[in-house]
Write a structure and sequence with these properties.
- One of its GO terms (cellular component) is cytoplasm.
- The protein is of the alpha+beta class.
- The chain folds into three domains: 115 residues, DNA Polymerase III, subunit A, domain 2 (DNA Polymerase III, Chain A, domain 2, Roll), CATH 3.10.150.10; 126 residues, DNA Polymerase III, Chain A, domain 2 (Roll), CATH 3.10.150; 113 residues, DNA Polymerase III, Chain A, domain 2, CATH 3.10.150.
- Helix content is 16%, strand content 45%.
- The strands form three sheets. The chain has a 13-stranded antiparallel beta sheet with strand order 5-1-7-8-9-6-2-3-4-17-16-15-10. A nine-stranded antiparallel beta sheet has the order 14-11-12-13-26-25-24-18-22. A four-stranded antiparallel beta sheet has the order 21-20-19-23.
- Strand 20 and strand 21 form a beta hairpin.
- The longest helix has 14 residues.
- It starts with a strand and ends in a 5-residue tail after the last strand.
Length: 372
Amino acid sequence: MKLSIERATLLKAVAQAQSVVERRNTIPILANVLIEAEGSTATFRATDLDIEVVDTAPAQVERAGATTVSAVTLNEIVRKLPDGALVSLTEDGASGRLTIEAGRSNFSLATLPKEDFPVMATSDYAANFSAPAPVLRRLFDKSKFAISTEETRYYLNGVYMHVADADGGKVLRCVATDGHRLARVDADLPEGAEAMAGVIVPRKTVGELRKLLDDDEMQIAVSVSETKIRFATPDITLTSKVIDGTFPDYTRVIPQGNTRKMEVDAAEFAKAVDRVATVASDRSRAVKLQLDEDRLILSVNAPDTGAAEEELAVAYGDERLEIGFNAKYLLEIASQVDRENAVFMFNSSGDPTLMREGNDTSAVYVVMPMRV
């Protein structure tokens, strides 16, 4: 195999591949990226047996072929090469080495046979549809902060993507929760998605997917089966197993009867919470909200570190309320608001609180209070 490829193109492909590779694994071939050269393209494939990413890049192929080489090492080498360099990759089958040349730099890396590289089995996808990158980006970006990190409740370790009923008809919905907070984000249902089974997209896949969604003009082809999900752009295909479990009935957690309404400037609110939380003890990080007519007092009282208080002007016309929250959860929810105003709907100091952006109900957040 022999090919030449632009450094920036190679770096993009290899960086995507090496982020999928698990640093610590017992199977040496899983640390490698499979490079296949044919025609005028080079394909870079990496997998951790749960996720597989395939990146296709234009290259000048002198000799077609394939080999596998350490993804992390190759990424480090390419990253350190000068901008604009033309990189040539030559595989010598006899010595089992891959030579990387650029300008005056020359590297030789050990390879493993391509036959040992596991390729993810193809799946029959029941639903195929395409969605604009900004739509998918919003769905996952606004929900992923609530993904649970608790391994015992493995079915919460991802984003539940499914077709749901909303006021205006059916929607494509992403939900994540860890039991303390919940995010539910809706988008218009793309054509062809009606038959989609609900799937739980793992946390790592959500992170990898984010790299495909930066281009606002891009249409992402999405394919879903009972066990796998695939996201594809013309250059990159990301295939992932989905979490084998049942996502809990989240609708029971979303409060319907919260009538006390507070409207506040989201950015000001987030900054104020951040400021008073500075003195909160790390363990509880509790912030108390005291609501009275058109004013909110945020306070923290940590006996071992100190106290803090800040007053904010808000729109609130209901009876007095005192309620406590984990500062981290409040900050994460407030940071999801793209519009100026965040609307909080309270019931009592012991009930879950609902938050949305202005009058927009397509993104709804729930946070559990804590005793302060």
